[in-house]
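sorry for the late reply, my laptop died twice this morning and i had to redo everyting from scratch. anyway the thing you sent over, i finally got around to it. pasting the sequence first so we're on the same page, its 203 residues, then the predicted structure underneath. double check i copied it right bc i was rushing
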Amino acid sequence: MMKHIFQQGKDSSKPTLLILHGTGGNELDLLPLAGRIDEAASVLSVRGNVLESGMPRFFKRLAEDVFDEEDLIFRTKELNEFLDEAAEQYGFDRNNVIAIGYSNGANIAASLLFHYQNALKGAILHHPMVPRRGIELPDLSGKSVFIAAGTNDPICAPEETEELQRLLENANAKVEVHWENRGHQLTAEEVEAAGEWYSLDIN
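ok and here's the structure:
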């Protein structure tokens, strides 16, 4: 089991929101985001199982922008299996999970989409990178993805965002990209845009 918080929502027909923090965060960090997106939905907020200099992450990296692919594959499988267990334990619909991730959390959410056709119904990815290259993605027909990106993001260049969009769209996902003239930080404006997207596309 991964460290997590589950909050039962008021409306069980709503998606369960899977909250995934950035490097150095924890399962409490992004809880307020869930309420901004859908205050009636159940929330499952998870802590990454990897420590880098004492900071929780969802998978190892070899350098700043170099992912440990072997660990990424292992941790993505671990998270997917945890979702299966959590759905059984808490009684939520496993086929109705929307991930909301920031930075490292957005990367593991994107990796779920890249590796498992039915892991997520959709995702809100704040400042994600391309998790892996040179692999065939599953058919993501019927999946909706919102990507929030910064035109001046030093960690995730605009080309990276555009490549991720292209890869997901080529796998038949419906993708919307929201640009802010900002860096890597999570902004109130992009959260608001994600909420609007969710109410139109998901809800």
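Helices lie at 31-37, 69-90, 104-115, 158-170, 188-201.
thats about all i looked at so far, will dig more tmrw
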